[in-house]
Amino acid sequence: METLYFSPMLLGLNLMLASAIACTGLWYFSRPYPGPGFWMAGAWTLILGILLFMGFMASGSPLLNVLGNATQLAGEAILLLGVFRFLGLPPPYWTVPASAGAMALVNSWYWYSPINTELMVAIYAVIGGVLPLQACHALLVERREPALRSARLFVGITLLGYALVTLLRAAVGVHDWLQQVEHADVTRSVSYLLPYNFGIPLWVIALVGLALMTMRRILLDSQRHAQEAHASAHRFERLMGVANAGMLVVEDGRILDANPMLEQLFARRRDQLLGQPLAKLLDDDEAPLLHQLLQRADGRPHDLQARRGDGDGFPAEVAVAALDDSQQRLVEIRDVSHRKALELQLLHLATTDPLTGALNRRAFEERAEQELQRARRQNSPLCLALLDLDHFKAINDRHGHQVGDEVLRRFSQLCQQQARRTDLFARHGGEEFIFLLPDTNAESARHLLERLRIALQGLEIDAPGGPVRVSVSIGLASVGAHDDLHHLQGVADAALYRAKQLGRNRVELAL
């Protein structure tokens, strides 16, 4: 019992077991930092080797002796590999099989041809002393991460002390071997007791230093990440402040933060915006699309109708992006009223005749085709009329092109005033115009065109040579079951020609 109580091996085992548990905790809480995983694996491998060696001492099994010593050195080598991984250096993996294999070879020879036990201890100590010298050198010459320099020096010096104690153990063992000293009870051997009194404490101190070095790196990284996060937040705030679009952070559909531009855009104070549903900034009809945008958060802009605090609506471009892994969204809202006005202006220029303001021929034909298809599907009536100003060339020749242009403008204005909302009116070319009258039979179309013709007779255009009066000849065609637009225009043109032949200033229905 006294032997067990004062057993240095049991004391060493308990110290190494505590170190292994501590290394396991360090690995768990420091993931994914490199290094602690090797320290944990090395410590448990070392304990396994000690247990195997204790089994040899209890049973005298040569196999346990070979495995125990080899496994202990393998554990030390694995643990020291973690130092290289922690420093970001290529680990010398070869040291694990080399140290374990060398010791296993020597131990196997011992059982084949016994040699002095002190020489065995010396060989073990030489291998165990050289291993930490590699890690010690790496720690002391490393120049990166200046903030870790003091921790590296602490661990490096401690490992150097451990290596020197181990090599001193080897020297004592060699001395005893040369003196032919051999201890029947190894616990009374100086070379055996030296590591338990000095080596293991230094080993534990080195492990504590490695833990401190790891925590120091974690702390430095945390500080750096905090500084980067602060700088990123500052940049984000500056971007939010100088952006020429309304920017807001949304979570669960409610506004968490907003930039000054959003206040200007919606004519609301920031305190009135925070906590409010984002949907309140948009028309009620936009709620389904807004919900989809918040779900997708793909950053693509979409046109929605927004509403200011005073109730005025305006066209807005809305883009939603995911802010982070949470449910928060970054929403950008731009007032695109000017862009929409330009688009309408460009559309107007592309589809209207610049002189008369009527549709141009291309725009008319595109829309007329749609109306013609609709009329066929719904089996509804539809009429087309061609209108040609009478004696327009004579007006141009007598009064000049300025008066002629004014005649065209005034006639176009009159036609657009007389037209219904569903009618299409366009300049067909020169002094010729065209009407498309959806949902209108021939008789109703004739009455509408007659009113237009009579109204034109009362129109006077001032000119230097006196007032100018104009009249119009009109050819009217009603769509048939299989008529296309080209054929319908041909039929109306024939009716217009007949109106000209019959004296002008009249409406003629196609035969």
Automatic annotation (TrEMBL):
Domain PAS: 251-297
Catalyzed chemical reaction(s): 2 GTP = 3',3'-c-di-GMP + 2 diphosphate
GO molecular function: diguanylate cyclase activity
Listed SMART domains: GGDEF, PAS
Keywords noted in UniProt: Membrane, Transmembrane, Transmembrane helix
Cellular component terms (Gene Ontology): plasma membrane
Listed transmembrane segments: 6-29, 38-58, 70-87, 119-141, 153-172, 192-215
Record's keyword annotation contains Magnesium: no
UniProt-listed Enzyme Commission number(s): 2.7.7.65
Subcellular location as annotated: Cell inner membrane
InterPro entries: Diguanylate_Cyclase, GGDEF_dom, Nucleotide_cyclase, PAS, PAS-like_dom_sf, Rev_trsase/Diguanyl_cyclase
Domain (GGDEF): residue spans on this chain: 380-511
Keyword Oxidoreductase: no
Named cofactor requirement(s): Mg(2+)
Protein name: diguanylate cyclase
Native species: Metapseudomonas resinovorans NBRC 106553
